[in-house]
Structure formats: C-alpha cells, structure tokens
Amino acid sequence: MRILAIETSCDETAVAVVEDGRRIRANVIATQLAHQATGGIIPEVAAREHLRSIDPITDKALRDAGVELKAVDAVAATVGPGLVGCLLVGANYGRGLALAAGLPFIGVNHLEGHVYANWLYDTEDVPPEPELPAVVLVVSGAHSDLVLMEAHRRFRLLGRTIDDAAGEAFDKVARLLGLGFPGGPEIERAAKDGNPSAYPLPKAWLADRYDFSFSGLKTATLRLVRSLEEKGPVPVGDVAASFQKAVVDALAEKTARAVAEHGVRSVMLGGGVAANTALRAEIQRRVAVPLRVPPLRLCTDNGAMVGAAAFYSLRHRGPEMPAGVRSNLPLA
Amino acid sequence: MSALLALDTSTEWASVAIYDGTAVLGEETWHAQRRHAEELFPTIERILSHTRVPMASITKIAVATGPGSFTGLRVAIAAAQGLARGSGATLVGVSTLDVLAYPHASSKLRTCPLLPAGRGEFYAALYQERNRKWARRSPFIVGPLLDICRQIGTHTLFVGEIDAEAESTLRDLLGPLALFAAPASRMRRAGYLAELGWTEIAERKQQPLGALEPIYVRQPAAGGTFAQPFAAPPADDQALGLPKRPS
Ligand SMILES: [Zn+2]
Fold first, then answer.
1. B interface with A, Cβ–Cβ below 8 Å
2. What is the ipTM of this complex?
C-alpha cells in the first residue's frame, strides 16, 4: 500500500510517499527560511508559506517517487497538534487531493508520526520492527512528551512539559550564551569542552510525576550567566555543559523510570533533540532494553513519519481523528 | 458533461456551488463561523450527490481569493489546489469582493461590498459601470468605515456583511447617499463566483496552480516580512466584464 503523506503543522512543508508504512519512496521537506530573520515562528507567516509550497512540494514528491497519483492508495495529512493556520493548509489540500482522486483520506496525529518514524527505512536492507511495548520520548523545539506505546496505535501519554519544550530551552540558553540557532547542536558543541559539574542547576522535572518543567532551569541559567558576567568573561563551555546535563538528566531519568515501571521491551526517540549524543548515551546507560533512534532527517518534522503513522492507523483501529484540525489534539 | 465547482470560505460565511456553464445546479451558503475545515468537504460531497454531478465531470474549479479572513481564505484555496491537482481541473481565483458586487451590476449604481476585517475595520472596493463596462474602480481598501466613506461622493449601494451597527454608521456618515440592498441579496453566493470563474477561464489562459495567492491586503501581525502589494485596480481591458450569456 502506497500513501502520499503531508505534514504542515509547524514551519516545514513536507510531503512523502511511503510504502506499507515503512519504505520511503520520496520524502521532500521545505524548511521555511522566513523565520530566521525574526528568530521565531510567526504563525501567519508560516501559513502563507505553506500555501505557496504545498502544491509544488507534492508534485516534487510524486516525481521523486516516480509514481503518478493513480498509483497511490491513500492520502494522509497531519490534523494536530500544531499551529491551526498551518495544519489547515495541509489537511484541506490533502482532503481535496483525496476526494478528486477517489482515495481515502487519513488524518494523522503529529506525535504518532514522531513515534512511527522509528518504523521507516530507505536502505536496501529491511531493519527489524521495534519491539513493543515501548517507551517513546519525543523531544524537539515544540514537544517534550513521554509516551507509553502498549501496542500499535495504543498510546498512553505518561508526561509532558508543563511550560517550555526541551528544544525551546536549548534555543533560549544558546541565545543567552551568544551561540547560534538552532540551539541544540550549538550547546552540544560548546559543552564538549566544558565541565558538566561546574555549576549546580535545578532539576527540570516534577517529583512523583512524569512531567518536565524547563522554565525554572532556564531562569536559573539566566541568573547564573548574569552573575558570571559581573566577574569577567563567561565560561561558555562550562555553562553549556552544566545546562545540557540538567536537561539530559531530566529526560533520561524520567525515561528510565518509565521503562522500569512498565517493563517495556524497547525505548524509542523522536524529535530534533533526539540528535543530542549526550541524551542518547545517558538513556542507553540507564536502561537495559534496546534504544532506537531514527536518522536525524526523520527525527525532525517530515512527511514520511505521517505516512508511516497513517498506514498503521488504517491497519489497527485507534482513536478517531477530528473532521477538522485541532491545535491541541491529544495522543490518546 | 463538464461542470465547475465553486468554493468560498472567505469569512464566517461559506458557500459552495456547482455550475454547468448555463445554470447553477446546486448551491449551499451557510454561517460556518470557524468550522470551515469540518464542514467544507461534507458540503462539497453533498452538493455533488444532490446535483448528480460526478467528481469526474468537474473540469473547472473557482475559488474566492479575498480579501477576507486569512485563515478562512486558505481553507478553500488549499482545498481547491488539492482538488485541482487530483482531478486535473482548471483552477481560477476570483476576488471575494468581485463576487459580492457582481449581482448588482444591473442596478447601474456604484456598489461597495463590505466584509469584516477585524478590529472594527472592513475590506471594501468600489464597482461601477463606465462605458458599458462593469468593473472594480478602486484598489482593495481596508480600514474603518469613516475612511472608506471618504472615497464616496455619490449614491452608493452597500452589500456584503453589514450588521445593524455598520448600517447605522454608514447612514450617519453618508445620509441619503448610502443605499442598502435587501439582506438576502447582500449575501455572498458561490453561484455568482461560479459564473465569474467560468467566464474568467473561458476568456483567459489558465493560471498556473502555484500562482493562486490570497489577496491578503494586510501584513501579518508582529514583524512579518512579506511584501504583499496593495492590489491596484485592474486595467480596463482586464476588468471584470459582464459574462457573455448564452443567447
Ligand atoms: Zn514535531
């Protein structure tokens, strides 16, 4: 089964063609550059860009895959969570495409997409499917969600951030330290030469729960940098390493606790922050089950992950998707 | 058979119609509020079924391009682009204000369609027959009614989404110069959009799909970087003419 899948929940216009939920035939991603000048995403600007890009990107995905629309079996699009104005572009374009071509339309939860990115491949060899049940940690500039996947399409949200997303905290601290954007890779690079125990920073989690909170950590880091500035040049490496350790500890600690409590058979990561090597190492150090991480281009928002989730959504019944779009669509 | 599907989600009011070049075969106009995304496709499917026009017969699509609610406009435009890509139909965009003014061409009155633009402001444009040609005679305007009325020196027929408050403001500002169409004939109906779209396609080359851009008029709030030109009125030869009716 061949699915044409659309993702427009944030600032990437992405369309993919995926076979049987796993094999990527095409995966076209247009990252909007308009936001770099403003240093943040303006929803109206993003939605305008999506509308300009969606049709040419779809055309390119079909050409990359070497298939005509006739050879596609279903159309899928993200219907939430995300920015409503952005979601509306991909969802309505997808519905129109499906109606005109006489194909079923599948609305997809964006977070399910990040989870199912772990099923994708574009290599010659077919990698084994991840083992279930599993704990999935989705961390990016938009998400910090800890999910229990009991079986296909049976998800339980264990915890999430109650304020900033992890990636957002990386971006803000990177800016504070005069590093570039996106903050994740910049902090990681700076932290390599730093001492992670140089400065004690508060924990970024809530006791007794699986929820995260990064705003206190961010404020404490700001205060630390201000006080260091008074004494002389800020030891950027030490601050970056201490901050990264606090974030990684929070994410790894909660992930490991969920693995132990639910006796799962694997751990999966998703979202741009999954690229952080310190995070991967710390999680693997704390858990005994195998850790799966998709390649970076499939960790960040893309259409292929939507195609994978759509395939399993057709195969395994699960939560009904809304007729329209929902900015805060829950996972389960 | 060849038919045109017309879609309009420019404001809280939405409308869908099917037209075969001679008659509007079916039309639905409703107060969708903010539920366009939920209600547009069920409405399209219902009208296709009621008119017994199969999707395969839709060879033309017309969509309202604003000005109007940015989010609302994008619902129908994205849907229309997907429908056109999936069916190979010819797609054309028509200004929402052109659609509103069009049925009043025969009144011979200067006509000013109004649509809410938020913050108490309105989108507007002025239409008038000159040398037996009906056309938009002003750029697209956005602003409070006071500013819009400054451009009005003669009897003007107001149509569009005018609530009681706006009507009384216009009467205060213009006195007897302000004329109002009956509420039912002020409404924006996709049947008119369909007729205009049909003529547009017949008379002009097809717009490439990607070139269909909403008429935003206003910049995005907070530091937007797009240079959306303030749309100038069309040249006379490009101006909206009365469509040729089959004789
Ligand atoms: Zn995401």
1. 35-38, 40-42, 44-45, 55, 58, 70-71, 74-87, 89, 209-210, 213-214, 216, 220-226
2. 0.92
CATH of A2-120+296-315, one of 3.30.420.40, 3.90.1720.10, 3.30.2350.10, 3.10.310.70: 3.30.420.40
Give CATH 3.30.420.40 domain extents, chain A.
2-120+296-315, 134-292
- Picking from A7, A55, A75 by the largest number of B CB atoms within 10 A of its own CB, the best residue to mutate is A55
Q: Is A151 exposed, middle or buried (0-12, 13-18, 19+ CB in 10 A)?
A: exposed
Prior bond of A133 cis (ω within 30°): yes
In 3D space, the residue among B68, B48, B45 whose CA is nearest the CA of residue B4 turns out to be B48
Distance CA B246, CA B136 (A): 24
Name which of B94, B59, B46 is nearest B199 in CA terms.
Answer: B94
Closest CA to A81 of A3, A165, A25, A150: A165
- The tokens for A324 are 């329209």
Give the per-residue pLDDT at A206. Answer: 78
Q: Which domain holds residue B126?
A: 98-186+228-240
Task: Check residue B227 and give its pLDDT.
Answer: 31
- Per the CB < 8 A criterion, the answer to whether B197 and B188 are in contact is no
Write out A300-314 in H/E/C secondary structure.
CCCHHHHHHHHHHHH
A287 CA distance to ligand 1 middle (Å) = 25
Class of residue A181 by CB neighbours under 10 A (exposed 0-12, middle 13-18, buried 19+): middle
| Domain count of the fold of chain B | 2
- From the CA of A112, how far away is ligand 1's center (Å)? 10
Q: Which region, left, alpha or beta, applies to residue A66 given φ > 0 means left and ψ of -120 to 50 means alpha?
A: left
Assigned token pair, B194: 């369909």
What dotted CATH number matches A134-292? 3.30.420.40
Shared domain for B106 and B89, answered yes or no, is no
pLDDT tens profile B53-94:
999 999 999 999 999 999 999 999 999 999 999 999 999 999
Alpha-carbon radius of gyration of chain B: 17
The CA B65 to ligand 1 mean position distance, Å, reads 30
Render pLDDT for A43-61 as a digit per residue (tens, 0 to 9): 999 999 999 999 999 999 9
Nearest CA in chain B to A55: B210
Chain B CB within 8 Å of residue A44 CB: yes
Q: Which amino acid is at B103?
A: P
Q: Kindly tell me the burial class for residue A72, based on how many C-beta atoms sit within 10 Å of its own C-beta (0-12, 13-18, 19 or more).
A: buried
